[in-house]
Write a structure and sequence with these properties.
Blueprint lengths: L1 E3 H6 L2 H5 L5 E9 L1 H6 L5 E8 L2 E9 L4 E6 L3 E5 L5 E3 L12 E4 L8 H8 L5 E2 L5 H9 L5 E4 L4 H13 L3 E3 L15 E4 L2 H11 L3
Parallel strand pairs: 1-2, 8-9, 8-10
Antiparallel strand pairs: 2-3, 3-4, 4-5, 5-6, 6-7, 10-12, 11-12
Helix pairs in contact: 5-6
Length: about 210
């Protein structure tokens, strides 16, 4: 089966079948739609491969930079540069939260959680927002940022990036600590360099 935002708009039942599909391709042809429509060159193409309810491969393509970030279960993550060279990527080395750079996606957060996270994010070194999951995952998997928090989970936005991040050595889990699966569409997602960093971010970002 093939799953994407446009296809699911026409047939919402596709989402519910993703977790049980023997083979599924999950595609976002233009991630970062706002940027693309605004003429901002920060958008990408994302595709994930799901086999029997497990993500086994992911690709993020940057049409502007003409390179590819590729991850496969058990095989690590690599970037294929525009000139053809293939290079292994690795997440950033763990650092204390006060030295982390990251992003919190605010769009779908509700109060009082929204204000709590806004306040506590100042415990980090700096923040960024690309309005494009493809480039945010790319930044993390390549070791140039430490964390990102998403609230809304649509598979075309996260399956490829989460798999690539994990294969680059990082830790990905829903906000309650449970594993992120292709069938999940809620529960939030926190992405970090390792489990210890994830635990610190989870504790401090939600601190009262």
């Amino acid at each position: 089966m093939v799953v994407g935002e446009e296809a699911c708009s026409d047939d919402p039942a596709l989402l519910s079948g993703l977790g049980d599909a023997a083979l599924a391709f999950v595609i976002d042809p233009v991630d970062g739609t706002f940027n693309f429509a605004s003429g901002v060159p920060l958008f990408g193409v994302m595709a994930g491969v799901v086999v029997n309810g497990e993500t086994v491969a992911g690709i993020i393509h940057d049409p502007v930079g003409k390179d590819w970030l590729i991850g496969a279960k058990g095989a690590g993550s690599h970037i294929r540069h525009a000139h053809g060279a293939l290079e292994k990527v690795r997440v950033a080395a763990p650092v204390p939260m006060s030295q982390m750079t990251g992003a919190v996606s605010w769009q779908f957060l509700q109060e009082p959680e929204r204000s709590r996270l806004a306040r506590n994010q100042t415990k980090t070194l700096s923040q960024f927002s690309y309005r494009c999951a493809a480039h945010e995952y790319r930044l993390l998997a390549s070791g140039h940022a430490h964390f990102v928090l998403y609230n809304k989970l649509m598979p075309w936005d996260h399956l490829a990036g989460a798999l690539i991040h994990q294969e680059a050595g990082g830790h990905v889990a829903r906000i309650d600590g449970s594993a992120y699966l292709p069938s999940h569409v809620d529960g939030g997602l926190l992405v970090a360099p390792d489990k210890q960093s994830w635990d610190e971010l989870r504790r401090e970002l939600w601190a009262e």
